[in-house]
Amino acid sequence: MTSESTLPTHTVFKPQDLTKFGQNHKLPIFVGNLDVGHGGTYSQPFGGDFARVASQWYKWQLKGDKEAEKLFTGTPNGLSKSQGWVVDRKKMN
Question: For residue 90, what pLDDT is reported?
Fold first, then answer.
């Protein structure tokens, strides 16, 4: 489970929001954080890293793209190897 030291400093997440992470025993959960502030990286060219990750998520979830899936699954998953990202997940391969 994520410790408070790895939680983002901006206002989108609050420590109590992730309390339910440990309480969920049925659904898959993926939480990826890159602590760059509320606006993320969307103001960077092509949306920066947030857009890259969001695009890969949609490719995997909506199109079944196996290459995109690797960013979120596996041990370790691809996103956790990306610089600056902190990842927690539960019930995901």
Answer: 85
